[in-house]
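User: Hey, quick favor. My workstation is busy. Could you predict this chain's structure for me?
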Amino acid sequence: MSLLVGGPRSASVFATADTEVLRLKSSDLFDVIKQYPHIENALEQFYDKRSKATRQKMKEVRK
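Assistant: No problem, here it is.
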């Protein structure tokens, strides 16, 4: 998410098996989006879904 919105990383990941990891800079992501525009739509949908879930959790906390 931080690649999209420019904020600090807010999650950690722990592998439970051998894993290949790639490090991606935001400029690299935007280069990929230029080459494959459909990725932008998929990322927007993901971001919207996550944002809605966060807002719903916030409403539940306030009850």
